[in-house]
Specification:
This protein has 490 residues and is an alpha/beta fold. It contains twelve helices and 24 strands. The chain has helices at 40-47, 70-76, 92-97, 113-125, 141-154, 171-187, 199-205, 223-226, 229-236, 321-331, 404-424, 463-487, and strands at 2-9, 17-24, 29-33, 55-60, 63-64, 77-80, 159-163, 191-195, 208-213, 216-221, 240-244, 251-255, 274-276, 280-293, 300-311, 339-344, 352-358, 361-369, 374-375, 392-399, 401-402, 438-439, 443-448, 454-455. Helix 4 (113-125) packs antiparallel against helix 5 (141-154). The longest helix is centred in the last third of the chain and has 25 residues, at 463-487. The protein is elongated, with a radius of gyration of 31 Å. The structure holds adenosine-5'-diphosphate.
Length: 490
Amino acid sequence: MIDVLHVSGGYSNEAILKDVSFRVNKGEFFGIIGPNGSGKTTLLKMMSGILPIKSGEITLNGESVSSYSVKDFAKWMAVLPQHTSQTFSYTVKETVSLGRYVHQKGLFQSSSEEDERVVQEVMKQTGVDHYQDDLLDRLSGGERQRVYLAQALAQNPQILLLDEPTNHLDLAFQKELLDLLKKWTNEKQLTVVSIFHDLNLASLYCDRLLMLHQGGIKTCDQPDEVLKAEKVQEVYETRIEKYPHPKIPKPQIMLVPEKQDSKKEVPLIKEDFLRVSKEMIHLQSPIPLKTLSSGVTGSGMGWHRSFVNRHVGKDYNCDDHKQDMIDYLTDHGFEPNETVGMMTAVDLKDVSYQFLEMDGCSIFVVVTAGTGNAVDVAFGEKHGFTQSPGTINTWVFVNGKLTDEAFIQCIMTATEAKVKALREESILDQITETYATGTSTDSMLIAATQKGPEISFGGSITPLGSLVGKGVFACTKQALQHYVARKNPK
Ligand code: ADP
């Protein structure tokens, strides 16, 4: 639809853009990104015909844009600039109506019913209809931005060029505006070309991104390709991390602030922070820990300071155990969002814990274990599905900085060590009468300080993995022995 072919140029003699070529397709949401001064606005001005190009060509449906009359061009393309110099003595509706100018005919141009219908429709779509009679200078920056968007839409264009459209908008309006634009690209085949400062918004909404660097194209591709960490770091000259969005398959860029507290003593997580009572086992960390867990609260990956293993009766049965746990934590002075909460029916006095250290690497393991629901995982289908409290809860605290890979390997290693302990204690699945590998509602937590030594791996023969294997095996075995001894007193 739009072809930018070997375009160079800028202001006076200096070439700001150098040999820039790309194509924007019909119905595409196309983002332009790049650091300050990289030429984004200059490029947009050239595409909208405001700024002449020095060499090369821009075509619209195969015809040079210079061959269109101003009015014909405006029927194709509307522009929402970053700053508008319009005086504010107009009302909202008058401002929006100016967008209809390109469709009015004859010497005495007057608004037709069609113009009125379009103006009302776009004001409604952009949410400015209820203050259509207000003067523009009474509105906030964000409201004004939406009025100008309505004006651009009143042109009924095929192509919309936007220079940082979300600049003055709060979070909800950013989303609403971009959702609306995306909907129009899908439903009306509107083509959107937009400059973005916010790389995460660009990633969420754009089909493709053009990354400019010093007046040239660094890369032009899908967001996942363009937002590769190395490319963003090189072009923006700052350290970033790239992560997948948790809900949709789009990359997100995270800034990492410079460390300010490097001189502070890093606490070792160990027994000193653990409290055991009849009602709960509780570890309060002095710093937030990065966690991977299957807790009732705080599951998945996150950062948590409080760790609670709560005792519940054997007949505990609750329709909404998550809410029940949140209420319990709140009643006991914990912030549920900061807490990994688990539950167990075993006697908490039978807990087993151990601090282990080797070659500058240290961990603290806490295990509660009971085998009421013991299951041989190879025959899980022989058991009915009942939601009863977890009976082997394993916590592994690591004093070190783990990779995501090491977190997952720690889960594997700890699970293998648990299975080995169950085998050693000859715990059986009561239904199949084969050796049990766990219980039906076990939970696990790996929590790391993310300070101190960098630990890349947690597999069974790595330094960390061998500590985890040894510690979880020993603690699970001892907790099982306590449990069996309590059940069968001599
Ligand atoms: P971006 O939008 O990526 O921040 P711009 O396209 O606004 O970058 O600017 C690119 C370069 O052009 C900058 O070095 C800027 O100083 C220069 N420039 C921008 N506008 C003008 C102008 N009106 N006259 C002269 N130079 C300009």
